[in-house]
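Subgroup meeting minutes
Present: P.N., E.W., G.H.
Scribe: E.W.

1. P.N. recapped why we're keeping a running log of single-chain structure predictions: easier to compare across weeks, and new members can see raw inputs and outputs side by side.
2. G.H. added today's entry (818 aa).
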Amino acid sequence: MTRPRTRVRVANPADGGFLYWLAKLYLFGACALVAVTIASLPAIYVAIASHAPDPPDLAAYRTEAALESKIYAPDGQVLSVLVRERRALVELPEVPPLLIKAFLAAEDRGFYQHAGVDWRGVIRAALANLKAGGVRQGGSTITQQVAKAYLSPERTIQRKLKELVLARRIESRYSKDEILYLYLNHIFLGSQAYGVKAAAKVYFGRALGELTPAQMATLAGLARAPSRYAPRANPAAALRRRNQVLKSMLEAGFLARPAHDAAVAEPLRVVSEEHAEPLPWTQASHFVEHVKRLIGERWGRDRLPRAGWSVSTTIDLPLQELAQQRVWTSLRELDKRQGYRGPIMRTHTQRQRRDLLRRADAIYALDQLVVDRPYAALIESVAAGAARGRIGSRRRITIPLSLMAWAAPYSRTDAENDRTISAAGEALRPGDVVWVVSPPRWLRRRDWGSRREAETSMALDQLPRVEGALYLYDHQSGYALAMVGGLDVDRSSFNRAVQACRQPGSVYKPVFYSLAMDSDKFSMATILQDKPYVPEPGEDWNPQNIHGTLDGRVTLHMSLVRSLNLPAIQLLNRVGAKETARWARRLGFTTPIHADRALALGASCVRVDELTRAFATFARGGTQMDPVYVRQIRSRNDEVLEDHTAPEDPVLGEGDRLDRLWAQSGTARPQVIDRRTAFLTARLLRDAVLHGIAARCQIVPAPTGGKGGTSSDTMDVWFSGFTSQWAATAWIGDDSYQRPLGEKEASYTTAIPMWANFMRDAVGKRPHKEVPATVPPGLKAAVIDFASGGPPKPGQKSVRIYYRPGSFQPGETPQPEG
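Output recorded in log:
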């Protein structure tokens, strides 16, 4: 018998089937994952924290944050601004409260409530971005933005987690105000501006306390995206963003409705970039670049642009400007003597000419032409006696033949200068675009350059191809006062005053003449032979005197004063080329020296600054003063890092002057050559001005001495000289050795006039003593016949010489004075 089957009935059956159970499984897995994640959070935090950087050191930030450095003239004129990050630190109490509120409204309204991360803000931003389908809001707090600045710029989850960890660390170490200090000084706001103080100056040319509410909102709006809301590049976007910040300030209660409405109505005005900062004084570019190199050698090349230093230099701005003018004038004159190299360009169609004139209208202010400024002019017609054209569409000009007669064709192979043309058509033709400049002063009408002239008379001009340098330093204080390293630093940044090594020609002669004066074997009356050089068989070297050979006996004195080459070669042979090289090292020359007979004519190259220092050594009585370019370097905290000021510095106060006297007490300048030797050499150089080819230097209203030089093939011309206070060197040459300066050019046609004209205006009424000043013990004086060296002759030129007792050779002894 079968028993009935018992059925089990489920009172609460589940429904949903397979999908229901599958969903339930996934839900359970998700809950387990969340639980595991929550349990793992401490471990994740520890892992991320181990790789996150430490919070920034606030004390170190004040001393290490990148700040711009400035180079100044002694009077405070800005010469250069060196900047990697344009930043100026400002303490929080100095920041207007409304500016702080503008940043809080724009970036982190709950800054004072959260602990570094605003989770509600993060969620709110995420939802807004999901809704918009892109990034529209950022959830980063101000603390996170500070943290972000110390992390890599990559956009990864790992970097974001590090940002959160670092933000918490910053909050735990610093107060809210200290975090704001970091933020407001470190945040990038575009145009190289870091921090609010720098941005206020860059965009508005104002201090923080002078900003309007609208300007504050503009700065705060830049924090999100400086390039997107750049006021100069994207003014419409910047205006919209500014108004958004103003609305946020209103909603947060930071700004009242009337102030909000007034700020919204305010136009968005920013200053141009060149007016955001005082413009550097551009005529000292070579000087400034040399100062940068010197500081880079001492402190590291990358230090200055971020150090926040104030560098005071020794430059004298009026003298620098005068030197620049003299170099420019001298190079233009020589360049024109070499000939005309043709127009800037040639136009061939009416459209080209219209475009050119339209560009000239935009570039030049043509209501009043500027004296000595070059203008690009279009030549429209050419006749025998003049050419006519235009500067811009409305300024008509004429170039008379008399103001372009110099424009004979330039030749690279023919070094004949001073050729002229007899008709304007020999140089110009219609369609040429040429440089023109104002005529000489005596040819200008009273209303020259004004619109009242129907046709303005101009002179044909061209930019010089030759180069020049002019260097001046005070050999008593050591201050370098002026340095022109070339015609135009934009054309060539190479500094020919301190970097170029060029053949000096006869300007090198005082080096070995001073070596002779250091010996009892030679005196100013020593007889040398001035006879034609007889080359050895197969020898190419055949030196000559510039003005011919006297074919007889001359004194050492006359040999140097008249710059005779043949006696100089004889003297070098007698003192020795190797000894001359060693002597040159004592005088401070560091350039390579070829110790052979060609050294007598300056075959080894020298630098302008070293040559000037050597000549100053003669004027100083044998002690040497190195040029000084930097007066002081002060740190961002006004601490003196370097102090090279001389006690006689006119800018120093009495207290500082006494401090410098004390600091330099007991420090003597090295006596590199004997005092008597220096005096005798300086006397020879003084006589070169009084009785020699440097007679033009007598126009300087102070006693001067010096020596000129012309290198082989006339590629370089020099003059180096001194007064009792200053030493200066002028150089003109062809950088590329392409063409001699001219067949008949020499130091007395170019370098000496440039030096003399500059020094005449530079000295002015400044008091200068006689050079050399006093006769040192151990020397005697005599008067000799200038030509023969014998006793003075009636009706013949005689000169006073000085000598060491016993330095005359038999038959050379003159009648001593007294």
